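Quick note —
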Amino acid sequence: MSAGAALAGQVTIQRWDRLSRLFTGVVLLLLVGLTLLPMAYGPATTDKLTTLFVLIILAVMWNALAGFGGLVSVGQQAFIGIGAYATIALSEQGINAYVAVVLAALVAGLIALPTSFLVFRLSGGQFAIGMWVVAEALRLVVGQFESLGGGTGKSLTTLNVYEPAVRQANTYWLALALMAILLTLVLVLLRSRLGSALQAIRDDEVGAASLGVRVTSAKRLLFLLAAVGCGAAGALLVAQTLRVQPDSIFGVEWTAYMIFMVLLGGLGTFEGPIIGALLFFGIQEQFADEGSWYLIGLALVAIAMTIVAPRGVWGTVVDRFAVRLVPIGYRLGGLPEPLPRRDPGGERGS
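Predicted structure written out below.
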């Protein structure tokens, strides 16, 4: 047998390795521990973690849209606002408020369907600005309805039937469940053939279409999933704070936060946005009370990361150590380790 044939027999195509399996087990144990957390800690802790779960949902949704589908949007706050206001509207129709949170996320997806037929006529920067225009239009429309509180906003009064501690614990559990479900859906999508098609579309839309990829259908499905996720985040926010106001819930700062978290963690990676959300949450906890200096600090951190580590924290780790905690694609196994790179200058000097 030739050396080439022997090497071919050793090479395997694999998705999971020992590290990724171990990491998956740790994540499952962590989810169990987080489920039990309200029994050991008070509302203050669960309230902070609910905020973290919402940030993770937002970061992962924007990364799926832009990092894997190439759909850079600055108007995802449109669906955050829809989710929040739909929760209030549905609960006032006699639906349990927590059931309304789930239904509101689906409402955001339903509204995203006709929206996609409009904004998909645009591409690149036009699509990004078009989504911002959609968000602003929805903000103005919602502000015209007195039944939704007009420009001053409205409260989710139907949750007042619960004791504050019970209400916060229920909101925490729902946020944890929705985060786990949405992240799983994104992972399953990215690991499917459709996920490969989306990445091909991101890299070369014309080339992907020439290979038979149904470009518009694939992008629309991803767009709807991202809308459902952002709608769920908005619904959870109003369940947590009990009040919503159009200028804040439809504010472009939500998309700015999403972009910051994704760029900080690593665009186009599954783990990166989660890491970015954790870092952003820590920054918020430490410096959010600093007012405008806090926003200036975020801008400086974003600029520094773009210069020092353009691939983000996790993207840099992947590039340097080839680590995959949550594998999306496949990799070759059984290959010999590459020889260490030698310094040509050193050889000449010796």
